[in-house]
């Protein structure tokens, strides 16, 4: 008797030896695909490993046949990324990258004064090429500046081709009679344009008015403009308060309005005073009066302390006030000591010496 178990065993053995075992789903390989991909293969079935786009194969076989043993042979195939051409240097700029392999992206920047002519990043493609093309750093330039009305360039040194490099300056000036509002110096900016242009405006000044007791001279023209000048003077005994020459400024005003100030008549008959640090006889020095602005110091007595001090007085437009403390002695009172001969009180000691 043959047992049914034995029959089953024999038929199984027969099946294995004739039909062999099936192969399982092949191992995954990084960046590769398998064709055809199934969960099991009959012995004799072929599979093909190929690298995914952007990767290239290295080493090992690509084609395998499912053997009777049902075990796929050891696969030594490797798929490695394609490498794009070296792009680590950008003249006048910098490249940021980790590697130049697919599918990495690298990025670019330019140093100050240069701009990216092209894209700011590029990707290593499946074909191992940069896309888009690598950029260059081109120098930033400004076109010739537009000249404001009533202005001209006074300093301008463009490159060949009439452009100016980033950071360079040009200087503008206004035509005569026009005043500048804004900065005369313009700079080529990183945007490739110039900093704000100044404005030139026509500026007129009114005719200057004649000062009382004096005169003013100015150009014999119908209109007085920016930078025109006028000169002032005063009649005898009058003194000019202000500059002799004034100029029409850019706000349409004269730089100053001088006037003529009267001199002072003086009634003191006898006094020793300090004038510009010197002791002088007042009645002699100022016998023709004092001019506006002149100052003298009178000596006064401090009766309690028996010393002298000084007090200042100034001629201001015809008015001169003698200090109240000053006592004029009659020339007959010869026994009286004049304040200027009394020893100075301490605070004044320096001045009198
Ligand atoms: C530069 O400017 C000059 C004068 O305006 C002009 O004659 C010349 O053609 C310009 N050159 C270029 C390259 O544009
Ligand atoms: C005028 O512009 C120049 C450069 O453009 C700058 O250096 C200067 O300080 C400016 N002057 C004034 C008064 O703003
Ligand atoms: C220069 O160009 C920049 C950017 O376009 C702009 O913001 C700026 O106002 C321009 N400057 C002048 C003075 O026009």
UniProtKB/TrEMBL annotation:
Q: Return the SUPFAM superfamilies for the record.
A: Complement control module/SCR domain (SSF57535)
- Grouped into one coarse class, the protein's main location is secreted
Q: Which CDD domains match?
A: CCP
Report the Pfam families cross-referenced here.
Sushi (PF00084), Sushi_2 (PF09014)
Q: Biological process GO terms, please?
A: blood coagulation, intrinsic pathway; chylomicron remodeling; negative regulation of angiogenesis; negative regulation of blood coagulation; negative regulation of endothelial cell migration; negative regulation of endothelial cell proliferation; negative regulation of fibrinolysis; negative regulation of myeloid cell apoptotic process
Matches recorded under InterPro entries: Compl-Cell_Adhes-Reg, Sushi/SCR/CCP_sf, Sushi_2, Sushi_SCR_CCP_dom
Q: Where in the cell is it found?
A: Secreted
Q: What's the protein name?
A: Beta-2-glycoprotein 1
Q: Cellular component GO terms, alphabetically?
A: cell surface; chylomicron; high-density lipoprotein particle; very-low-density lipoprotein particle
What is the role of the protein in this entry?
Answer: Binds to various kinds of negatively charged substances such as heparin, phospholipids, and dextran sulfate. May prevent activation of the intrinsic blood coagulation cascade by binding to phospholipids on the surface of damaged cells.
Q: Keywords assigned by UniProt?
A: Disulfide bond, Glycoprotein, Heparin-binding, Lipoprotein, Repeat, Secreted, Signal, Sushi
Q: Which GO terms describe its molecular function?
A: heparin binding; identical protein binding; lipase binding; lipoprotein lipase activator activity; phospholipid binding
- The lineage's top-level taxon is Eukaryota
Q: Which gene encodes it?
A: APOH
Extract the signal peptide range.
1-19
Q: Which residues form the Sushi domain?
A: 21-81, 82-139, 140-202, 203-262
The disulfides recorded in the entry are 23-66, 110-137, 205-248
């Amino acid at each position: 008797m043959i047992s049914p178990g034995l029959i089953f065993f024999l038929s199984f053995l027969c099946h294995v030896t004739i039909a062999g075992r099936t192969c399982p789903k092949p191992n995954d390989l990084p960046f590769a695909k398998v064709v055809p991909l199934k969960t099991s293969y009959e012995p004799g079935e072929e599979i093909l490993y190929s690298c995914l786009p952007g990767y290239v194969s290295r080493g090992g076989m690509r084609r395998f046949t499912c053997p009777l043993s049902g075990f796929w042979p050891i696969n030594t195939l490797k798929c490695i990324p394609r490498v794009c051409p070296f792009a680590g240097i950008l003249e006048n700029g910098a490249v940021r990258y980790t590697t130049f392999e697919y599918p990495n992206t690298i990025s670019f920047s330019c140093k100050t004064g240069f701009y990216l002519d092209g894209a700011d990043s590029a990707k290593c493609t499946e074909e191992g090429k940069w896309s888009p093309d690598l950029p260059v750093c081109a120098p930033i330039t400004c076109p010739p500046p537009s000249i404001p009305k009533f202005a001209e360039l006074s300093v301008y040194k463009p490159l060949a081709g009439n452009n100016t490099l980033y950071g360079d300056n040009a200087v503008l000036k206004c035509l005569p009679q026009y005043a500048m509002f804004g900065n005369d110096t313009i700079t080529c900016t990183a945007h490739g344009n110039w900093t704000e242009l100044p404005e030139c405006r026509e500026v007129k000044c009114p005719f200057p008015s004649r000062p009382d007791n004096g005169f003013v001279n100015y150009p014999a023209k119908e209109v007085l403009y920016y930078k025109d000048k006028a000169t002032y003077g005063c009649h005898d005994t009058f003194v000019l308060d202000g500059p002799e020459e004034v100029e029409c400024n850019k706000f349409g005003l004269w730089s100053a309005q001088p006037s003529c100030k009267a001199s002072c008549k003086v009634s003191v008959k006898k006094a020793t005073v300090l004038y510009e640090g010197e002791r002088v006889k007042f009645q002699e020095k100022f016998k023709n009066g004092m001019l506006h602005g002149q100052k003298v110091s009178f000596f006064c007595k401090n009766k309690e302390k028996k010393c002298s001090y000084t007090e200042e007085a100034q001629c201001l437009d015809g008015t001169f006030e003698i200090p109240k403390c000053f006592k004029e002695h009659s020339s007959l009172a010869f026994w009286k000591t004049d304040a200027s001969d009394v020893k100075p009180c301490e605070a004044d000691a320096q001045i009198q010496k």
